[in-house]
Amino acid sequence: MTEVGNTFKDIVCTFCGCLCDDIIIEVDGEKIVKNTNGCAISKERFVGHMENRCLQPTVKGNPVTLEKAIQRAVEIIASSKRLLIYGLSSTENDAQREAYRLAEITGSVVDNTTSVCHGPTILGAQESGETTAALAEVRHRADLVIYWGANPAAAHPRHIPHYIRQPGEYIKDPKKDRQIWLVDVRETTTTRMVDRFLKINPATDLEVIQTLRALIRGTKLDVTEVGGIDIKELEEIATAMKTAKYGVLFFGLGLTQSWGRHRNIDAAIRLIQDLNAHTKWGLMPMRGHYNVSGANKTSTWVTGYPYAIDFARGYPRFSPGEYTAVDMLARGEPDAMLNIAADPVAHFPRAAVAHLASIPVINIDPKFNMTSQLAEVNIPAAIAGIECDGAATRMDGLPLYLKKVIDPPDGVIPDRDILRMMIKSLEKVMK
Amino acid sequence: MAEHLILKNGVVFDPMNGIDGEVMDICISDGKIVEKAPANAKAVDLKGNAVMAGGVDPHSHIIGSKLNVARVTSPEVNRHHPYPATSKTRSGVAGIIPSSFATGFLYSAMGYTTVVEPALPATKALGSWEEIEDIPGLDIGLLPLFCNSMITFKYVEEGDIGGLAAYIAWTLKKVGGLGVKVVNPGGTYAWAYGKNVCGLDDEVPEWDVTPRSIMTGIAQAVQDLGLPHQMHFHPTNLGRPGNVHTTMQQLDAIKSVKPSGKKKEVVHLTHMAFDCLGVVEEGMANWKDVASGGLIFADYYNKNKHFTTDLGQITFGQSMTMTGDGPFQHSLYLLTGGKAKWSNIPVDVELPGGAGIVPFTFEPKSPANAVQWVGSLEFALSIKDLWRLFLSTDHPNGGPFLKYPLLISWLMSKRQRDIWLEMVHKFAVERSTIANIEREYSLNDIAITTRAAPAKILGMDKTKGHLGVGADADVAVYGFNPEKTDLGKNPDLILKHFAQAQFTFKGGVQVSKNGIVAKQIHSRVHTTHPKLNEALSARIDRELEEMMSKWFSHSFSNYPVPARYREHLEIPRVIDSTSVQA
User: Fold this and answer.
1) Across the interface, do A136 and B348 touch by the CB < 8 Å criterion?
2) Residue-wise burial string across B389-412, b where 16 or more C-beta atoms lie within 10 A, e elsewhere
3) Superfamily (CATH) of domain A119-285
C-alpha cells in the first residue's frame, strides 16, 4: 500500500490529460492539507476540493433529499421524448459506462466534451488513421518535440517539466539533446519554455502543414513565404524534421478548432505518416479534461463510436454534427438534458445555451458551475480520484487507477452511483 | 445461477474422450459436467442434433486499445451492422470489429465459450479488465507481450533466463495474464528507430540481443516456469512472400528449448497463413512470384513435433489488420501506396515502436490474396496430426470471427472449395495443389480443431474443449442431424448451422437459442499465477522497481491492476515455479 499514516503516495491528479501519478497528498483529519509534486492547478484541485461545493441536492433551487432529486430527475427523463446526455469527461470510466446504459434504455443521445475539443482530431483520424505516440517513449527517444497550437504552460503545466524536459534512456541531457519548438499564432506563456518559437499567421496552419509535406517530399515551391514564414526557414524546418531521430508533434485546440479544423488534423497526420518514410515520428493531441480520452475509450468499446451517439432506434448510431450536443441544442431538438461533470452553459455558444434555458436540465457535478444556475435539478457528486476511486485514461491512452484519499461530504456519492439510482428507478417506471 | 440439466439424445462429438458421433446424454450440475444429474434436473431433448463442447478460440483480437483505435478510425465498417438492445441484452455494433457487448453475444450465438485475446500490452491491462466487464458470456484469457520490452532485453542480454522468467511470472500475476505472447522479437523495438529485423541474428538497436536470443530465451523461460500454454509466437518477416523458409528457420532455432512439463510443444506458431508464404520455382521474394507455402510447411509440421499452430485464414472481403508488429503494418500501408488509413500505437517500454492498424480488403481476384488464401487451406488439408492445429482467422486480420462457418465449409466440403476456386484468381490453382486434394474434414476433425486441440494447446484441457465428467458445462448444440446430413455435399448447411448454434450453454447456463442471445452473463477471466521461490521473488521485486521507475512514465505502484477490477471475474491458476533458480 502507498498509504503511510495520513500521507498517500503515487496519487493520480485528476485535472488535465497528463494524469501525473506522482502526487503526494497529505490528509489531516477531514482536510487535505498538502499536495507535493502537483502543479499549481493540481494543488488547488486537491487542497481546494471543498471550495465552491454543491453539498445539497436541489429541485428548482429548493433543497431536497437525494431520493427526491433522483425522483424528479427520473420524472423529467421518463417524460422526455428527446433526452440529451452530455459531459462525462471530468469523471471516471464507470460513471461513463452507466451513462451509456441510461442512454440505451431511454433511447437518448449521449455525447461527451470531445465534440467541442478534439472532435476534429477524431474526424481527421477517420480520414487518415492515427500515428500516435506514448509519453515514456517520447522521454527516452525524442530529439525533436513540436507543440502546435497548444499552450501547455497554462493548460498542462507539468507536460514539459515532468514528461519532456527530462532525461531519458537515450536522451541524456534533455536541454542539449532534445529540441522543443512551438508553433502558434501569438506568443504565449509556453514561448519562454521552448527552444524555438515559430509565429505563423492566424488561419494558415493548413497551408504551413501542406507546405512542409511538399518540402519533405522534395518539391520546390515557387513562393517566398507561407503563413508569414520565409520559405527558406520552412525548408530548413522540413530538413530538421526529416533528419530528427525521433520526432513528436503535440497539438492543441489551436490546430483542431481553428480555420480548417479536421482538415488541419488530417494534414498533420499525413505529414507524420510521410515523415515515417524517412525517420520515426508520432503525434498526440493534448487532451484537456483529465478523462476525455477515457470518455472516447469507454464510449467506443460500449457503442462502437467515440462520441455523438444516438440510441433512438435501440442501437447506437454515430453522426457528428447531428448528434453532437451543440448542434442538437442549436436546432432546438432536445426536450431535456442530463449533464454530468461538464459545464455546457459556460462553454457553449449562445444559441445552444438559449435552448438549454428553455428545457429542464439535470446537472450532476461536485461544484457549483454556470450550468447549476440554470438546472432544475442539481445533484452533488463525489470527486473521482479524491473522494472516490475509479479509472481514467491519460492523453496517450495509458489507463490509470484513481484512488480515494478522503471521504466525500456527508450524503454525497459518486457519479456512477447517482446514475445507477436513476437507472434502477427508470427501469421500474418504464416497465 | 447454474441449472441442473440433462441434455438427452444428442449426437455427441467429443474427441478428447474418444467419442465420435455417439447418441448419448450429457448431465450438468452447478456449471460442471457430471456423471449423473440430480433428480430435479431439467431434461432437454436434443434428438437429431449435433453436440460438441463449447468452441475454444485461443487467438482473436477482441480487447484493447488497438480495437478502439480501429473502431474510431473506421466507423464505416460498423455503420450498417447494428446490434439492437433487448430487454435482457445490451446493444452495440456487429461489423468486422464489433463493440464489446456484441462481441460476446456473437461468439455465444456461434457456440463459442472460450476466447483468448492474444496481444495485451501489460501497461494497459487495467483497461482490458474494464472492457471484459462489458464482454458477456465467455471465459477469457489475456496474453501479455514480452518480446520488445527493454526489461526482457536486459535479462536476455545477460543470459539471465531465471530473471526473465521471474519478470514474466511477476507480470502475469500483477496484470492478470494467462500466457506469453511474442511478436516480431526485436523488430517492433527496432521500429522505434524506423527499422525492422528479418534474420535470426540481426542486430537490435542499442542492445546486444537478436531475434534468436529473444525468442529462445522467452520460450525457455516459459518452459522453466511450467506455464500451461507454450510461448505464443508471431515470427519475424510476417506477410512476406517466401517467409515460409524463415519461419521454419525460427522454429528450428526454438527446437533447442527444453520442454519441462508434460507437453512436448515449446512454441505455438500463430496465424500461419501470414507466416508461410512460398514463392514459385526460381522466383524472387516478391508478391508477383508468391506461391502457396502450404505443402512445404505441412511437410515440416508432419516431421517436427515441437510446435503447434493455427491458420489465421484469410476469408476475403473487408478486414482490419492489427498486430503488435509496427514495421509490418507500416509496410502494408506502403503497399497501399500510402492511401490506407495507417495507425501506429506505441505503448511505452513494453512495445516501443508499437502496434499498427491498417484496414485491408482481401480480394478474391487479387493473385496475391488468392494464393495466401489457398496456402493455409492446402496446409490444413495436408497435415496428419490435427491435435496441434486450431482454426482461426486471426480476427479481425484475416477476416472477422463471424467467418468461421465459411472456413469450416472450405475444410469440410470439396464441393465448396471447387465453387470458390472458380471465383478466385487462377493462381490459387496454378500455384498450389489444392485442386487435387480430395480430403474433407469430418465433424470429429472440426470438433478437434475448434475445441479439443485449442483447449489442449492452451493447457486448459482439464475443464475446456471436452464433455467428460469434470469439464465446465460449456456446450454447443448444432441443429442438424449428423446421421442424416451430408454436410460435404451441402456446404450451405455448414454456413447456416455453424453460424447459429441451436443452443449454447456456458457454465450450464443457456445463453443462446437459434443464434439469438437472450441471457447476458458476466465473463470470467482465466489467469496464471506462477509461484516463485522467495529468493527469486525478492530479487525480481527489487529489480523491477528499479527498472520500471527508470523506464516507465508512470509510478511503479500504479502498474498492477487493482483487485477491485479483478476479483469478481478472475479464476487464477496457481502453478509451482519455485524450482526456477534466483
Assistant:
1) yes
2) bbbbbbbbbbbbbbbbbbbbbbbb
3) Dimethylsulfoxide Reductase, domain 2 (3.40.228.10)
